[in-house]
C-alpha cells in the first residue's frame, strides 16, 4: 500500500523544530522540482498535500537520521526511503511565505548566532519559541 499514512517518513523538518526554508524557483536536495512547483500560490498558514511522480529522479532519496538538538545526517550505507523513479507524498505547511516572521523569531536582533541556532519554533510565532528543544525518538513511526 502507498499513501500518506503508510511507509517511512523520509524527511520531516517538523522534527528539527525549525521550518525548512528555500527560495521559490530554486529546488534543493530536500525540495524536488515537483514540490517547488506545487507550493506556488500557497499563503502563510496554508496546508497542501502533494503526490510527486519521480520526485527524486534516478538518484532516489536515502534515509536521513535526525541529530539531537537539530540537524540531520545520512549514514554511509543508508537505504532508500524513496526509490529512484518512485512517487513521493508530501504534506506541506507554509509557515512563512516571505513575511519574515520566522527570521524575526528564530534569528532575533542582538542574539548571538550560536544561540539563535538553538532556538526552535513550530509556528514562528513569538510565544512558540524554545531554546530547550527535546527531539522525539526519531523519524518514522
Low-confidence stretches: 133-141
Strand line-up of the largest beta sheet: 1-6
For the terminal residues, how far apart are their CA atoms? 16 Å
* Proportion of strand residues: 5-15%
Largest sheet: 2 strands, antiparallel
**Overall outline:** globular
Q: How many β-strand stretches?
A: 6
What proportion of the residues is helical, as a percent range?
10-25%
Helical element count? 4
Helix-and-strand structural type: alpha+beta
In sequence order, what are the helices and strands, one letter per element?
Answer: HHEEEEEEHH
From the alpha carbons, calculate the radius of gyration and give it in angstroms: 16 Å
Number of domains: 1
* Mean pLDDT over the residues: 79
Secondary structure topology:
Layout: H1 13-16, H2 33-38, E1 47-52, E2 61-62, E3 65-66, E4 72-73, E5 80-82, E6 88-93, H3 101-106, H4 113-116
Antiparallel strand pairs: 1-6, 2-5, 3-4
Key traits:
EC 5.2.1.8, two-stranded antiparallel ribbon, PPIase_dom_sf, 141 residues, 6 strands, peptidyl-prolyl cis-trans isomerase activity, 15% strand, alpha+beta, PPIase_FKBP_dom
Describe this structure in words.
The chain is an alpha+beta fold. The protein has one domain (14-124). Helices cover 14% and strands 15% of the residues. It contains four helices and six strands; from the N terminus they run ααββββββαα. The longest helix is centred in the N-terminal third of the chain and has 6 residues, at 33-38. It catalyses: [protein]-peptidylproline (omega=180) = [protein]-peptidylproline (omega=0). Its EC number is 5.2.1.8. It comes from Calcidiscus leptoporus.
Amino acid at each position: 500500500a502507498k499513501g500518506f499514512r503508510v511507509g517511512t517518513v523520509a524527511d520531516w523538518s517538523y522534527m528539527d523544530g525549525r521550518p525548512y526554508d528555500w527560495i521559490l524557483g530554486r529546488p534543493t536536495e530536500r525540495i524536488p522540482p515537483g514540490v517547488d512547483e506545487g507550493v506556488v500560490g500557497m499563503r502563510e498558514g496554508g496546508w497542501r498535500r502533494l503526490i510527486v511522480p519521480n520526485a527524486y529522479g534516478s538518484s532516489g532519496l536515502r534515509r536521513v537520521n535526525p541529530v539531537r538538538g537539530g540537524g540531520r545526517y545520512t549514514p554511509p550505507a543508508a537505504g532508500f526511503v524513496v526509490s529512484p523513479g518512485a512517487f513521493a507524498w508530501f504534506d506541506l505547511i507554509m509557515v512563512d511565505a516571505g513575511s519574515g516572521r520566522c527570521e524575526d523569531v528564530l534569528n532575533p536582533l542582538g542574539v548571538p548566532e550560536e544561540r539563535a541556532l538553538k532556538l526552535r519554533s513550530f509556528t514562528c510565532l513569538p510565544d512558540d519559541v524554545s531554546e530547550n528543544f527535546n527531539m522525539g525518538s526519531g523519524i518514522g513511526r
